[in-house]
Design brief:
It is built from 14 helices and five strands. 53% of the residues lie in helices and 5% in strands. It is elongated and about 80 Å long. The chain is mainly α. Strand 4, helix 9 and strand 5 form a beta-alpha-beta unit. Helix 4 crosses helix 8, helix 8 crosses helix 9 and helix 11 packs across helix 13.
Length: 336
């Protein structure tokens, strides 16, 4: 079966759990905004995925509205991309079912994320948790997407998506292209936490993570508590990791002249970490406050968010229906 000629398509999803933070912006959202000018893009809020670890849905609507609002506040344009909720595209569940027939229990049990999550919730090792990579594959190939902006932690799932693509094509005919990781050939920016231990996180280490919803005061307070020491004693000393992290954060939001001043102060052993953190706090507020304020305004406009979700779902379903027509034909499921 021939695939339609198509421009390369981008697809990515984010779970509506936890709060978006500076790492999400520099590691993903900034690239998404660039991609929307160059490719057809499908950006999904993965509410079905969230049910595998957060079965209580009381806060789901609030979380989905917040994630959508923050994506738009960071520069995604719902008129140019398909910005939609996973559960609004019913074809996802159909393709997920078909792909499950091509996925094997042994390989699913070996995935790193399944093993990690099973340890975290030993009393809730549900089938959705086991088949998470199958649903993720369905999300991607439903739009016959080839470009998937993911970090290293998702590369195993993307490899599995390619496996299911090849199994389906081998068994039923050539319907799906293979998806690949795509980030403009750049290393993804890993934004360090303020305590020097790992990177910023949506749910862990909250006092050392700068969220896009943090108030000005909270941003300043968190930056003030960033780990420092008594300063270098030898000129041009190498920086300890936790000091390097503060400079990395400064490089994201501060002007070149500001960075140079503190680099020179460090190399001359005259640096005052209180001044460094005060400057970083101010520059972080200048960067985050406009995003937070725009996101709050969007979040409070439920009529607008409803229109965004409907528009996104219409675009995503049009793509999904075209794919599922090919899938059913290839599988021989058209009986009349």
């Amino acid at each position: 079966m021939e695939k339609r000629d198509q421009q390369q398509i981008v697809m990515s999803g984010i779970r509506p759990t936890g709060f978006l933070h500076l790492g999400n912006y520099f590691g993903a959202l900034r690239n998404f905004v660039r991609m929307q000018d160059e490719f057809p893009c499908y950006f999904m809020v993965a509410d079905l995925h969230a049910l595998t670890t957060h079965p209580d849905t009381k806060e789901l609507k609030t979380n989905i509205h917040r994630v959508l609002a923050e994506h738009i506040a960071c520069g995604l344009d719902p008129d140019r991309v398909a910005l939609y909720c996973q559960s609004h595209v019913f074809e996802t569940s159909e393709l997920y079912l078909y792909l499950n027939m091509l996925a094997y229990k042994g390989e699913l049990e070996k995935t790193t994320t399944f093993k990690d999550k099973a340890k975290l919730q030993p009393d809730n090792i549900n089938a959705g948790l086991l088949t998470y990579p199958v649903l993720q594959a369905a999300d991607i190939i439903l739009h016959r997407a080839t470009l998937v902006p993911v970090g290293k932690d998702q590369e195993q799932h993307l490899e599995m998506a390619r496996t299911y693509v090849n199994r389906f094509n081998h068994r039923y005919g050539d319907v799906f292209p293979e998806p690949v990781a795509f980030n403009y050939g750049q290393q993804l920016v890993k934004v360090p936490s303020l305590d020097g231990a790992g990177k910023m996180s949506k749910s862990e280490n909250q006092n050392a993570t700068l969220y896009l919803s943090d108030s000005d005061k909270l941003i300043v307070d968190k930056v003030k508590k960033a780990k420092t020491d008594s300063g270098p004693t030898e000129p041009n000393s190498p920086k300890p990791d936790y000091i390097e992290n503060i400079f990395l954060l400064m490089k994201l939001v501060s002007g070149e002249d500001v960075i140079k001043k503190f680099e020179d102060d460090y190399n001359n052993c005259t640096i005052r970490y209180g001044d460094l953190k005060k400057q970083l706090g101010e520059d972080m507020v200048k960067f985050i406050a406009p995003i937070r304020e725009k996101a709050e305004a969007i979040r409070n406009d439920e009529k607008y968010l409803k229109a965004v979700m409907e528009k996104g779902a219409d675009k995503a379903r049009a793509s999904a229906q075209a794919t599922m027509d090919l899938v059913r034909t290839a599988m021989g499921l058209n009986y009349y």
